[in-house]
Design a protein that fits this description.
- There is one protein chain.
- This protein is an alpha+beta fold.
- It has 3 domains: 177 residues, FAD/NAD(P)-binding domain (3-Layer(bba) Sandwich), CATH 3.50.50.60; 168 residues, D-Amino Acid Oxidase, Chain A, domain 2 (2-Layer Sandwich), CATH 3.30.9.10; 105 residues, Helicase, Ruva Protein, domain 3, CATH 1.10.8.
- It has 13 helices and 18 strands.
- The strands form 2 sheets. Strands 3, 4, 5, 6, 11, 12, 13, 14, 15 and 16 form a 10-stranded mixed beta sheet that branches. Strands 1, 2, 7, 8, 9, 10, 17 and 18 form an 8-stranded mixed beta sheet that branches.
- Helix 1 runs parallel beside helix 4.
- The longest helix has 17 residues.
């Protein structure tokens, strides 16, 4: 039976209803399904449709969080960094970060101390440690302005954020969860010892009613609205919305290293190699009080990010150099911090029940690095409502496509290229990075590119599109070009229109 069909048949009764298909919702659904609960996850749009595809795309401890004494968060994040690197070596990989010392900002001793703590807070460390570097003689200093003569280098990891969300949803489904996208939870009420919820198909408009013993509110920026509106519950916990924006420009520097740039306002900005030909720059931190739906970068944010680059790099950029930008609204737990950058990135799990029954757990805050641990904590908090729950299990479990011996991506890529020599080198690498061992399900028995069907821009083939439709809930061209991949950077309007028409034909034939 195809993987996409292994979830439970649609039912009317579940142990757990999860609202929200971002990283926290899919992570919780995966953990719960693996512990034996029947789970329904409902996402009103696409998986990772908002915040979870709008991150800086890093699995990191959060070096700057040390300034706010968030040692527990940093220690937990560093431990998770090591786990996730083993569990998903296709979508997560190490990066070296160059931190120039900028006179007049943080003193060198503070940077050295912070990096010493960063290196040693993790109980297990497989990544290279930090070191000082003379930027005048190191290749790392070549793209930088000559005034920057000294710096530090340390390690963290990159993540394909929206793909990590999809992998968690796939694993949840493999373990029996029902995952419904384009499905909104329009209302829910307590009834006896559980919940009765009304779900709406956002494409067709049809509604259905389901029951659940407990609800997880992982609605991200909508967590408060879902709690007070959809679920009808007043809570003391509050969410603080922060808009973060990024820009993408043509590649600014050679090499695989990233840069972390200090700013006079005490923020830090990343400049990261992106999709091989580009540089990703971000992020901003702007208080946000609008509707937490689709948001876009402002001119002030664009100017700010360009200015951050121009303070440190020889190559100057202007808003005209931006080839793409994206923005997201982060639902941070409101700890009453005055500065948006100082608001805690830690998470708070709020449980409200009625006499030990009909619980609802709401997720406030969090970061993509610690999503697995957050999910584990969430299920532990729900344990009193599910006697006999199986123990925690996700700490050592690989994600779909990640079962590579010794988590060795390069060896796997070499084997894939040997098995399918007709694949262009760039296509083989892209497939291996996106899908890991599941790339073999896409190429199947093909012996030539022609066997993979119609070809769109960026090497996207009909075989890959069909896989994404069946196995990964992709519905629209945007789902594929900007969340399942970043091929939108390489796709012209004509090819995007052909892809949309192809998807329409396949949907009509289904």
């Amino acid at each position: 039976m195809p993987a996409a069909q292994r979830q439970r048949e649609p039912s009317d009764a579940y142990d757990l209803l999860v609202i929200g298909g971002g990283i926290n919702g899919t992570g919780i659904a995966r953990d719960a399904a693996g512990r034996g609960l029947s789970v329904l996850l409902a996402e009103r749009g696409d998986l990772a449709g908002f915040t979870s595809s709008s991150s800086t795309k890093l699995i990191h401890g959060g070096l700057r969080y040390l300034e706010y004494y968030e040692f527990r968060l940093v220690r937990e994040a560093l431990a998770e960094r090591e786990r996730l690197l083993r569990q998903a070596p296709h979508v997560i990989w190490p990066l070296r970060f160059v931190l120039p010392h900028d006179e007049g900002l943080r003193p060198a001793w503070m940077l050295r101390l912070g990096l010493f703590l960063y290196d040693h807070l993790a109980r297990l460390r497989t990544l290279q440690g930090s070191k000082s570097v003379d930027l005048r003689s190191s290749p790392y200093g070549a793209p930088l302005q000559k005034r920057l003569t000294r710096g530090f280098v340390y390690s963290d990891c990159w993540v394909e954020d929206s793909r990590l969300v999809v992998l968690n949803a796939m694993d949840a489904r493999e373990r029996g969860a029902t995952v419904l996208t384009r499905t909104g939870v329009v209302s829910a009420r307590r009834d006896g010892d559980g919940w009765v919820a009304t779900l709406r198909d956002e494409r067709g408009g049809g509604e259905r009613t389901v029951r659940a013993k407990a609800v997880v509110n992982a609605a991200g920026p909508w967590v408060s609205a879902t709690l007070g509106g959809t679920l009808g519950i007043n809570s003391r916990a509050a969410v603080r919305l922060i808009k973060g924006s990024h820009i993408v420009v043509k590649r600014l520097f050679p090499g695989d290293q990233a840069y972390i740039l200090q700013q006079p306002d005490k923020r830090i900005i990343f400049a990261i190699p992106y999709e091989r030909d580009f540089t990703l720059i971000g992020t901003t931190d702007v208080p946000y009080d609008g509707e937490p739906g689709p948001v876009s970068i402002s001119r002030d944010e664009t100017d700010y990010l360009c200015g951050c680059v121009n303070r440190s790099f020889d190559t100057r950029i202007t808003p005209a150099d931006v080839v793409w930008s994206y923005s997201g609204v982060r639902p941070l737990y409101d700890d009453a911090a005055e500065n948006a950058s100082a608001v805690t990135r830690d998470y708070v799990l709020d449980v409200e029940d009625q006499g030990g029954k009909a619980a609802v757990l709401s997720v406030f805050g969090g970061k993509i690095t610690t999503y697995r641990r957050l999910a584990e904590h969430a299920i532990e908090k729900l344990k009193p409502f599910f006697p006999g729950l199986k123990p925690a299990w996700t700490g050592d479990a690989v994600l779909p496509g990640g079962a590579m011996p010794d988590a060795d991506f390069d060896t796997f890529l070499a084997k894939l290229q040997a098995e399918k020599p007709f694949l262009p080198a760039e296509t083989a690498r892209r497939l291996a990075r996106a899908y890991g061992t599941k790339a073999r399900e896409i190429v199947g028995t093909a012996q030539s590119m022609a066997d993979l069907g119609e070809v769109f821009d960026g090497g996207l083939t009909a075989a890959e599109v069909d896989y994404l439709r069946v196995a990964e809930w992709a519905v629209t061209a945007e789902d594929i070009l900007w969340r399942r991949s970043k091929l939108g950077l390489r796709t012209g309007p004509e090819s995007a229109a052909r892809l949309a028409a192809y998807l329409d034909r396949r949907a009509e034939a289904a």
